Each structure stands twice: as structure tokens, then as C-alpha cells.
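Quick sanity check, SET domain-containing protein:
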Amino acid sequence: MGPVQNATEAYVLQPIEGKGKGLIATRAIKPGELILSEPPLFTTASLSNPATFEKDLGAIVKGLSKDGQRAFLSLHNNNPGANPFSNIVRSNGYPLGPNSEVGAIFPLVARLNHACRPNAQHAWNEARGIEVVHAVRDIQEGEELTLSYLAGGPSTERQGRLKEYFGFDCTCEACSLPAKELEASDARLRRAQKLDEAIGDPKRVRHLPERALADCKALLNIYQEEGIFDLRLPRLYYDAFQIAAMHADAARASVFAKSCADARTVCEGEESEEVKSMRALQANPASFGNWAATKKWKSSVEDVPKNSGNEAYEKWLWKESA
């Protein structure tokens, strides 16, 4: 069987050496462009009894069309043997949103292989009932489309978890760097983990906000150097937003809310509920639930400098010394 071409000619499904099948870009794709959208083949919403999970899942599969059955059974199984249906779901399922306990199978999305520096991001579109995949950076014709199956960490940590949970040895670009470059990358990512932990300390955010904001900027620099443009980027901007909001800084809060919304739009599209929420906070930062725990940095949205984009503006934004 030859490659499977999609209708919009953005990608082709074809065998990839050492990976089974994957999606290859058939043209240049821009950041934020919708690559594909797919409704679930089925969900796990009705599977509530762990003792009968495999049996109940088998009944769902039996009720699929022949094409649906073939699509499901052709997916990779990380743990072949007993309970094949359950293990295919565990190997390929995606939750219906970040906080959902319900999973689903999307046969095409499941063909997107892993990379530690992915060029795409998946998200559940609740309003339309579909999984969407957007490009998070420029993708060249002939490049494999990839997602990240896990977030961050140095190469040995990533590879260990990928082997444990997904059963493969990662040979992506980030994991295949020359020794000195890989060592430098690992050092940056270990620092990123420490920065992320420090940023998440609520006492530090309250009592040492300047340092917390400086940590956000340092983490942003690492993400830029590492080529990280997936959901980690909008989450970072949201952290910066929360720091500003906690100290009644409407000017910076509005800027960080916009940056968060823009970055999430690239990852999830304008229909994302998270994007809509951040657009609302951009317009009215004071509507944030933890607004003005202190008034240490009190400002108004009108205080945002007009000369955005230059060095002085960046120093203002991150409260760096002139």
C-alpha cells in the first residue's frame, strides 16, 4: 500500500524507518497553521469498571465499522500480549482535554511520532468535538511532523521515561546532538527544571516577585535557545502574568496575558477556551482571581510603554535594571 495523502496536501502518511508509520509534510507549513483535525474513533467514557475494561473495550471495537476496526488494530501496541485492546488504547489514547479522565482514540493523530523538540502541538477542541494539531514553528516540505509525548528534562531523563512508558529509544534531533552540544543542552534543561520549580513557589512569588520574574525571563531564554515552542511557552507567559497580577501590575499583566494568548493560539487555535480566557484577562487583568494580593507594583493598562519591541521596552517588561 502506498502513502496515504490528506485532502489539503499538508502531509502524507508513510512508513518511516525505525518508527513504523508517520506523517511527512508535503509543503511548507507556517506556525499556528492547522495541520489536521480529527473526531474520535471512540472514547473511553463508558468504560468505568477496571475489572471488565478489556471485555467492554472489545465490545466497542466490535461495534466499529470494518475500516474503524482496521484503523484501531493497526496502531502500535507498546505491550503486546494479554489485554491487546487495552494496551493499544494506553499506547495511543489522548485525553479529551488536559483535566479530563476520558480518553479517546484518534487514528491519524496517533501516527504522529515523538520528538523532544516537536514542531506541532495537539489539543482537544471541546466546542467542535475534535482533536486539532497545529504547527508551532516553521515546518519545511519533507520534514516529519512530530509531537512531544512528555515534557522536558535532560536527555537521559527523557530517554528513560520514553523507554519505560512507550517502549522506544529516542533518536530525535535533540537526543542525537554531538556530545558537547548534547551536554550543553542537558545543562540548560536541568537549569530549566530548577527555574520552573522556583517559579512555582507561591511564597517566593509573593515575597520575591522580582526574582520570580527574572526566573521567567531566564526560562524563556532557555526555551528560545532550545527551540521549544509547544505549550511550555504559553504556560511560562501565564506564570509571568500571575506574578504581575498578584502585585496589581495591570500593565505587565496585560502584556503577559497577550503573549500567553498569542502563544496558545499558535498551539491550539483561536477557538481554544484557554485562548479566550487569556484574551479576557488581557483586556481586564483585574478580573483574575488572585488579583492584587499586594499592591507592590500597582499600575494600569494605560501604563504600558508605547514603543514596544525595543530594548528599553524589554527591560521595562521584565523589570530589569537600565
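Posting the structure with no commentary besides this: The chain has eleven helices and eleven strands.
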